[in-house]
Amino acid sequence: MAGRPYTSLLLLLSLLLLVTLSPVAEAYTKLRPQDCKPKCTYRCSATSHKKPCKFFCEKCCAKCLCVPPGTYGHKQVCPCYNNWKTQEGKPKCP
């Protein structure tokens, strides 16, 4: 019986954390088409293949209205961006 208050407290804290962090994910998923170019410029800033990176990033952003944070990885934040594949089954979006 003693574990029950802790379970409820843990559940409440988890819910508060989820509500607090949800605007962070929304910032990457609710882009307008005009927001794509600057987001992709930053996304592709660390690669040596900037031109193709920006081309595909902007194409993906136009379709998905989302660009993952950072210059690499974090694609799980944008499921559409993450799941779009080439005909060979490779990721289309950088």
UniProtKB/TrEMBL annotation:
Membership in a protein family: Belongs to the GASA family.
Cleaved signal peptide residues: 1-27
Key word Flavoprotein present: no
InterPro entries according to UniProt: GASA
Pfam families for the chain: GASA (PF02704)
Source lineage: Eukaryota, Viridiplantae, Streptophyta, Embryophyta, Tracheophyta
Protein name in the entry: Putative gibberellin regulated protein
PANTHER family attached to this UniProt entry: EXTENSIN, PROLINE-RICH PROTEIN, GIBBERELLIN-REGULATED PROTEIN 5
Signal is among the record's keywords: yes
Keyword annotations: Signal
Species this protein is from: Rosa chinensis
